[in-house]
Design a protein that fits this description.
about 160 residues, alpha/beta, Cytidine Deaminase, domain 2, five-stranded mixed beta sheet, about 15% strand, binds zinc ion, catalytic activity, Cytidine_deaminase-like, CMP_dCMP_dom, Cytidine/deoxycytidylate deaminase-like protein
């Protein structure tokens, strides 16, 4: 169930994804929100330098492990423009973070990459429930997913 509040946080993730694209990075953005609704951490992809592990959800997991007690992590929500990849889903699980809400799914991203003729990812396109046991996940959100789709199209055009 995705609420109005969830949509606001997801829109911020799409904004961060667009910022990443404008800085020459891949368009993915994520935020960490406490049980009280406070935005604790936000980031976007930093893979343009060549390190393809620099995903915002991975940064969030590490930040949470360093700065939050286990019960605070379990009650926090991670919002993200694109569903966690297997690496980030595992990191999320290892640090015991709570709910995940995403604007677009990994399945959608995979379809868009194919449609754009982009190079396939070296990592299998698995969904969060294929990585995490009993995850609390919501998404995708069609209207926001379409915005993420457009960012992927812009990324692809910029590479032409
Ligand atoms: Zn990732």
């Amino acid at each position: 169930m995705i609420t109005e509040k969830d949509l606001q946080y997801l829109k911020r993730c799409v904004e961060l994804a667009e910022q990443a694209l404008e800085k020459g990075d891949e368009p993915f953005g994520s935020i960490l929100v406490s049980a009280q609704g406070e935005v604790l951490f936000e980031d976007h992809n930093h893979v343009a330098g060549g390190d393809h592990t620099q995903h915002p959800e991975f940064a969030i997991a590490r930040w949470a492990a360093e700065h939050m007690a286990p019960d605070e992590r379990a009650e926090a929500t991670v919002y993200t423009s694109g569903e966690h990849c297997p690496m980030c889903a595992a990191a999320h699980g290892w640090v015991g973070l709570g709910r995940i809400v995403y604007a677009s799914s990994s399945k959608q991203l995979c379809e868009w990459m194919q449609e754009l003729g982009a190079e396939p990812s070296p990592v299998r396109n698995l969904s969060i429930p294929e990585i995490l046991k009993d995850p609390n996940v919501d998404g995708p959100v069609p209207e926001l997913a379409e915005q993420v789709h457009q960012l992927q199209q812009r990324l692809h055009e910029a590479k032409q």
